[in-house]
Each structure stands twice: as C-alpha cells, then as structure tokens.
C-alpha cells in the first residue's frame, strides 16, 4: 500500500505543481484586480503566467527524471521537415476537431465560457500565452512527466489512454474534454513517433495558434 501511494504521488506530482502555481497566480491576480482592472486580458494573462511560472519547475523535474530513468519512448532521428509537418498537422487537427464539434451541436449544448474568455484578450497575449507558453507547460506535464511516470508501471497502450483521459479532464468543461481526448491521442502519437518532446509541443502549438488566429479573424 505504501509503495502504491508513493507511485501515485510521483505520477500526480507534475499536475499538483501546476495546480499549486495556478492557485498562487490566481490569488495574486485577485489581489491586483482590486487595484488594477485588467479587463478582457485578465483570464488569458493569469493562465499564461501560470504556465510560465510552472515551466522552470516542470523542466527541472523532467531533467531529473531523464537523468535517473531512461525515457520509455525511443528517440527517432527526425529532420526539420518532420517537425514542420507535425506543426501543420496540429493546425489541421484543430480545424477538423472544431468542425466536428460545431457540426455535432455539442458546442451549443454545453457552456464554453472559459475558452471564450481566453480568446477575448489582446492578440499578442493570446499568441504568446495560449500559443507558446501553455503548450510547452502542458506537454511537460502530460507527455514529459505524467505519461513517462505512468510508463514505469503501466504498458504503453494503457498509459496513453490514462494520460489522455486525465489531459481531457484537466481542461475542465465538457466541450473541451470531448475535444481534448482525441487531440491527446494525436499528441502521444507525435511523441511515440519522434521520441522527442519537441514533436508534441509543436503539434500543440500549431493547434492552439490556428484557433487563436481564427478567433481573432472572427
């Protein structure tokens, strides 16, 4: 039982780190809000700051893991064309996912207010935060740490399913959960086919950036 608790705590640690940082940033945000109204930038700014503040801590955890335990994913020799296609694939997957969600009527059945608030910020903040910082932080959490630690005691297929399910749940509302699960499977495919965290990061960036651009274009 003690060993199970230790393993579970180790697997959940990156999520708890990010949640802890998010709580601190949100608390500071509430404090600043009392003296400085950030308007429509507030939600995106706090989300971006949470990601930025988490990245050094998560990166340190990831580096320590790789020094102690070899990655469960074998690194492949991929050229720049592969990574360019991965980035474009992320954008294409986001477009396809958005189309399916809209056609299915799911976006009208559930509230998606959180995402709408994030897309209400100024464009440069969305690009820097949602398009760059958030994908890097989330890939460190879910592929670089959570999934790799799951693989220490789960087989590949089950590890991917568990990590994808938690990734979906982490997004907090039904619309984003339904969208995020298949996207997580594709992110894991990128990771498995490259053996490098750069691939899912680029895929994630492509997906988020195309969403930002389309929302900005109206």
From TrEMBL:
Q: Where does this protein come from, organism-wise?
A: Candidatus Merdiplasma excrementigallinarum
Asked whether the keyword Transmembrane is assigned, the reply is: yes
* Single GO term (MF): metallopeptidase activity
Residues crossing the lipid bilayer are 12-36, 42-59, 80-101, 121-141, 153-170
Question: What keywords sit in the KW lines?
Answer: Hydrolase, Membrane, Metalloprotease, Protease, Transmembrane, Transmembrane helix
InterPro entries the UniProt entry points to: CAAX_protease, Rce1/LyrA-like_dom
* Gene Ontology annotations of biological process type: CAAX-box protein maturation
Q: What is this protein called?
A: CPBP family intramembrane metalloprotease
Q: What PANTHER family does the record point to?
A: CAAX AMINO TERMINAL PROTEASE FAMILY PROTEIN (PTHR36435:SF1), SLR1288 PROTEIN (PTHR36435)
Domain named CAAX prenyl protease 2/Lysostaphin resistance protein A-like is located at 123-210
């Amino acid at each position: 039982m003690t060993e199970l608790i230790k393993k579970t705590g180790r697997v959940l640690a990156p999520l708890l780190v990010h949640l802890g940082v998010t709580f601190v940033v949100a608390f500071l945000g509430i404090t600043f809000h009392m003296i400085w109204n950030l308007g429509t930038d507030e939600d995106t700014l706090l989300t971006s700051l949470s990601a930025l503040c988490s990245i050094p801590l998560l990166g340190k955890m990831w580096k320590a893991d790789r020094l102690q335990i070899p990655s469960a994913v074998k690194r492949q020799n991929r050229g720049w064309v592969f990574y360019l296609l991965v980035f474009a694939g992320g954008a294409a997957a986001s477009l396809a996912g958005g189309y399916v969600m809209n056609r299915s009527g799911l976006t009208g059945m559930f509230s998606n207010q959180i995402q709408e608030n994030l897309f209400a910020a100024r464009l440069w903040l969305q690009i820097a935060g949602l398009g760059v910082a958030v994908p890097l932080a989330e890939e460190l959490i879910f592929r670089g740490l959570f999934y790799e630690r799951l693989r220490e005691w789960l087989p590949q297929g089950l590890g991917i399913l568990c990590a994808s399910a938690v990734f979906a749940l982490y997004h907090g509302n039904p619309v984003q959960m339904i969208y995020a699960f298949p996207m997580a499977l594709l992110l894991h495919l990128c990771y498995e086919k490259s053996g490098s965290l750069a691939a899912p990061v680029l895929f994630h960036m492509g997906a988020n950036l195309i969403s930002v651009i389309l929302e900005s274009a109206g």
